[in-house]
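INFO batch 0412 | record 1 of 1 | parsing
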Amino acid sequence: MNLESVMNQDACGDLQFLASMAVDSAHEQPILDEGRHFQAGFAGIIGESRALREVLELVEMVASTDSTVLLRGETGTGKELIAHAIHNRSRRRSKPIVKVNCAAIPSGLLESELFGYERGAFTGAIAQKSGRLELADQGSLFLDEIGDIPLELQPKLLRLLQEREFERLGSTKTRLVNVRVIAATHRDLEEMILNNQFRSDLYYRLNVVPITIPPLRERPEDIPLLVRHFVRQFERQMHKTVETISSETMEALVQYPWPGNIRELQNIIERSVVIYTRGKLTVKKSWLCREYFHEEKPAPSTYAGSATGERDMIGAALARAHGRVSGPSGAAAMLGIPPSTLESRLRSMNINKYQFKIA
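INFO prediction complete | emitting C-alpha cells
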C-alpha cells in the first residue's frame, strides 16, 4: 500500500496515524519503550539500521583520536547529535564542546565571535572578550554549516587547524589553543571549490575523517522506532496518552521520503500530538510535501552483472554527467536508478564522484 492510497482512505484527506486499543491487534502496533532502541552508549541516537550502525562504528574509531572530523549530510539528519557523540566518547568529554553556527552569525561578527577581540579593536569594543575558540580550549569546537564561512575568514581558520594558534581581533599576541575541531555541512564543498567559493587547502584540512550521515529515506527501518520515540516524548510533554499505532499508517510513513529528514518527522509527530484529543491521532495530507506524492518511478536499471562491470558503467555515466548524480542529465537518470541508490553504491564501492567533475 502506498502513501497516497492510505491518505485517500480518509474522506477529509487525513492520514489515520494512531487508532484506539479496540482495533484488531493484528493491524495495530503497541508503542514500545523507545529506550531499548537507543544505540548503546550513544545518547539521543535512535535506530538499528545497517547505515546508522556503520556511521556509529566510524564514530567509535575516530572518537579516541584528536583528528579533525567533517560531518556531511542533508539538513535534519542529526549531524549535531553525531558531533556530540564524538566528543562524549573522547578523552575531552570532561571539557566543553562549543558550537559555532557559521550560517547563523552575520559574517561581520563571525570573526570576533570565533577568535575574540581586544578593547578598542572596533567601534563598540569597550572591553576585552574571549572568543568561542578560547572557551573550547582542551575541549571540542563544533563548526556547524562550515560551508557558509566567509572566504576572507577561511585563511585564519586554516591557520588554526594547521598551527593551533590565532590572534584576537586588535591584538598582535599569538595565542595557542588545544581544541579538537568537528565541522559539519550539508553543502557540496567540492563544487564550491570549483566555483571559487571555498578554499581547497582548508577543505583538505577539514576532510581528515569524513563521515556521511545517511538521510532518513536510506534507513526506513528506523522510522517506526523514531515515530514511537517522538510520540512518547510529546506525550510526556503534553500530558496525553496514545496507545497504539496503525500498521497501515506506519507503512505509509515508512514509504514517505522525508525530504526534511528526522527534523521533519519530529515536527509532524509533535503537531499530531498537539491537536490530539482522543481516539486517534491524525496527520493531515497538507502537512507533507505534495511534490513527493506522485514521484515518477525510475526506468529499469541499465546495469547489472559483476561488480567490475557495474563499476565501469557507473564510472562511464559519471564521466558523461561530469560527476553530477541527480537531475535529468545526472548519472542516476542515465543508469535508471534513484539518486539515493547511486550515492549508496558510490560509498560502498569507494568511488569519488568529484574526480569526474574536475575531469
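INFO post-check: The mean pLDDT is 82.
INFO record closed
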